[in-house]
User: Fold these one by one.
Assistant:
Number 1:
Amino acid sequence: MYPFSGEGCGETRRPNLSPDEVCRLLPVPEGPLRIPPTASRSPDLDRPEILLSVAIPTFRERQNLPILIDRLVGLLDPAIPGQYELIVVDDDSPDRTGEVAAALTEFYPQLRVMRRRGERGLSTAVIRGWQIARGRVLAVIDADLQHPLHTLLELWAQMETGADLAVASRHVEGGGVSDWSLARRLLSRGAQVMGLMVLPGVLGRVSDPMSGYFMVRRDAIAQINLNPVGYKVLIEVLGRGQIATVREVGYVFQERQEGESKVTWKQYWEYLEHLLRLRMARWPVGRFLRFAIVGTSGLLVDMAIFYLLLDGWGWPLTLSALLSAEIALLNNFFWNDRWTFGDISRRQSGWHRRFKRLLKFNLICLAGLGLNVVILNALVWGLGVGAYLAKLGAIAIVTLWNFWVNLKLSWRVTEVDEDVRLNERR
Ligand SMILES: Nc1nc2c(ncn2[C@@H]2O[C@H](COP(=O)(O)OP(=O)(O)OP(=O)(O)O)[C@@H](O)[C@H]2O)c(=O)[nH]1
Ligand SMILES: [Mg+2]
């Protein structure tokens, strides 16, 4: 389904690897970071379906990896026999972690290994691993034994009870950090607070958005173009996935015994960049453009009706203005309901709900009119701005207000029919 870079059996493009080693490596997916909706089944149809795929990103972890794999197999074999897989994604570590991993596949049939070149980074490594995963549930765990392994079974238990996402958290009961300096604690919490300010609706959903230890249902993140940078794959999953039910399990972050941390200041910058990417992706730019086009059509309707009533039929000024404004408002509501917010309206069916939306739209636009007058006066009398420039400024601010408040109140996604929501999730 996905174009691969051509590694795998029979390939001779990797002169530094023996043919045997190449055969044990998984092909590296190329192109968009998009997870297929259905897991590819093992060619051997007699083998049981894989339920859980655990991605293990590695960079210079040769001492830790054999211990981790042995312990993971010891833990998962009794719990989910034959129905899990471990996927190591190594970024061509100079300490030859990839070769160690490939050699381990001989002893652990449930282990699969991918070695990337060119592309690098923890988050993308995890997603590349998930792209070739076969499980219905996708997980990630660090390779350096800092994530206590028994927590994996607790996360699995949460997934089995129907969670979309189960996160190992340092900030719930039973959670913590073992021996962190005050500076590191402050940095970690600072990053969390900053994230909460930029993306409250995303990071606020879990107590430990910085966690790199979690499980997610495949269909909650399948067929979505993921685009993370840096270390925090969880915020990508929360920010772009269709996550309804979140569960948390406490865990204590262990100290590293072997190898060294790869965290540098670069990761903090990448975290910031990642937050901004998600923020931008969540702004409904297309919807706002449609709203602005409808608003412009309303202006034309308003002017035309006003002209007809005032000059054509000789109606009084105020009455003409009020009626033309109300007709323009109805025009705007009609097109916004059908087009700008059509996807939401279709999921909130019935005349009763449509009337409610119309009423809210009317009231919000009326409040917008009041706001317009206030801003206009403030700009002209308070700041000495010219009347026409001030009018333009007021229109721009009120358009934003109208759009935002209507988005949050009139066409609220939360009022979507429950049965439609359920169907969509299937
Ligand atoms: N594939 C891949 N894995 C990475 C990369 N950077 C880190 N990792 C792995 O991701 C996991 C977490 O990285 P660490 O450097 O331990 O980060 P951390 O656990 O948040 O921080 P420490 O507590 O300082 O160790 C480990 O398994 C690393 O080997 C990378 O660029 N590519
Ligand atoms: Mg670590």
Number 2:
Amino acid sequence: MNEREEEIVICRCEEVTLGEIREWIDRGYQTFDELKRVLRVGMGPCQGRGCREMILRELSLKTGKPVSEIHPGTFRPPSKPVKLSLLAAGGDT
Ligand code: FES
């Protein structure tokens, strides 16, 4: 494994590197939700939009399962703040 590759930050919100993800997969954590519990990946402000696909791909490479067979985990849709003045005016954005 390339040492520099291991330092690539996969989850920018929680600052989790590829090396950390690989380490926990090697320890037996083989679903997105398991990695989420130990590393907090997918729990940042983007709710996994920035890292979910890359982590699922890494799980696929490490486990030999196609991405389509790996559960993407549970997640909430990202929320955006809405100005109260827009709500008061009856705006829809
Ligand atoms: S990049 Fe992983 S939660 Fe945002």
